[in-house]
Amino acid sequence: MAKDKDRKTCGELWDEWKQFMWNPRTHELLGRTASSWGLILLFYLAFYTFLAGLFVLTMYVMLQTLDDYKPTHQDRLATPGMMIRPEGDSLEIIYNVEKTESWDMYVQALDKFLAPYNDTHQAETNKECTADHYFIQEDSGEVRNNPKRSCQFNRTILEDCSGMKDRYYGYHDGKPCILIKFNRVIGLLPGKDKQSPYVSCAAKNEDSDKIGELMYFPPNGTFNLMYYPYYGKKAQVNYSQPLVAVKFLNITPNADVNVECKINADNIGPGSERDKFAGRVSFKLRINRN
C-alpha cells in the first residue's frame, strides 16, 4: 500500500512539468526568475565576447609576423623532391609502339606541360640571363624589389625532347623522352658558381642490362644556376622551372625496366630511404612491341 501511495499519477507529473516550465506564482521560467536568467546571459555574453576578442587579437599579432612574399619559417626537407612528366599511372609508363592510342596520352600530357615554355612566350615574359651564375635580386632595405624577373627556359633547349623536332617525343619509335623537374624551394642555392646540379639516371640492379643508352637535354642533364634562387610564386610570378629531359635510345622491348633518376649537387645530400622522392625519383618503363 505504501508503494502505491508513493506513485504519482500522470496528471500530477504533468502539473509538475508545467510548473517547472512556468511557475505563475513565483514567475520562474525553467526554474529561474527573469533577473537570474538575465545575469546568466550577461555573464556568457561578456565571457564569449572576451574570448572572441582574444582570438582576433592573437590572429592580428600573428599576421603581422607574416611576409606576403616569403615564409617567415621554412620547415622543409634537407633534400628537395623530384618528379617526372608524364607521370603515367603510379609512375609507370607502359605502352605498345604499334598502338598509337596506348602512347598518345603521354604525348598530349607533354604538349600541355611544355606549352608555357614556348620560345615566344618566354621571350615576352622572361629575361635572358647569364648562364652558370645565380640570378640574385636583392631588396633595397625596406623597398621590395618586386615583382622579380625570371630567366628564360626555352623549350628548344630540350632539343630532341622539345616536341619541336619530333612531335611525338620519341614514343612512336620506342625512344621515349621523360622530363624531370626539381621541386621549387624558396631561397635554395643548389651548388656553387660553374658547378650546376645535374641529373643522372640508371636502371636498378636487376635491370641494368636492359636500360640501354641515354641522352640528356640540356647536355649533361644540368639545372643551370641562373634559375636560382627561387623567390616564391607571388614575388616571381613568371618563374619557369628548369627541366631536364632524358631520352631512352635503345631500351630492351617487352620488359619491365625500373629506372631511378637522382640529383647530384655539392650541397644537396643524398635522399632518405624513407622518402623515395627526396632528391630522386623512381619509375617503371615498359615498351612493348608486337
From TrEMBL:
Subcellular location per the Swiss-Prot or TrEMBL entry: Cell membrane; Membrane
Tree of life domain: Eukaryota
TM helices/strands, residue ranges: 37-63
GO biological process, one term: inner ear morphogenesis
Membrane topology: Single-pass type II membrane protein
Keywords tagged on the record: Cell membrane, Disulfide bond, Glycoprotein, Ion transport, Membrane, Potassium, Potassium transport, Signal-anchor, Sodium, Sodium transport, Sodium/potassium transport, Transmembrane, Transmembrane helix, Transport
InterPro entries: Na/K_ATPase_sub_beta, Na/K_ATPase_sub_beta_sf
An example Gene Ontology molecular-function term: ATPase activator activity
Assigned GO CC terms: sodium:potassium-exchanging ATPase complex
Primary localisation category: membrane
PANTHER family with a match to the protein in the record: SODIUM/POTASSIUM-DEPENDENT ATPASE BETA SUBUNIT (PTHR11523), SODIUM_POTASSIUM-TRANSPORTING ATPASE SUBUNIT BETA-2 (PTHR11523:SF26)
Family: Belongs to the X(+)/potassium ATPases subunit beta family.
Role, per record: This is the non-catalytic component of the active enzyme, which catalyzes the hydrolysis of ATP coupled with the exchange of Na(+) and K(+) ions across the plasma membrane.
Protein name per UniProt: Sodium/potassium-transporting ATPase subunit beta
Species: Scleropages formosus (Asian bonytongue)
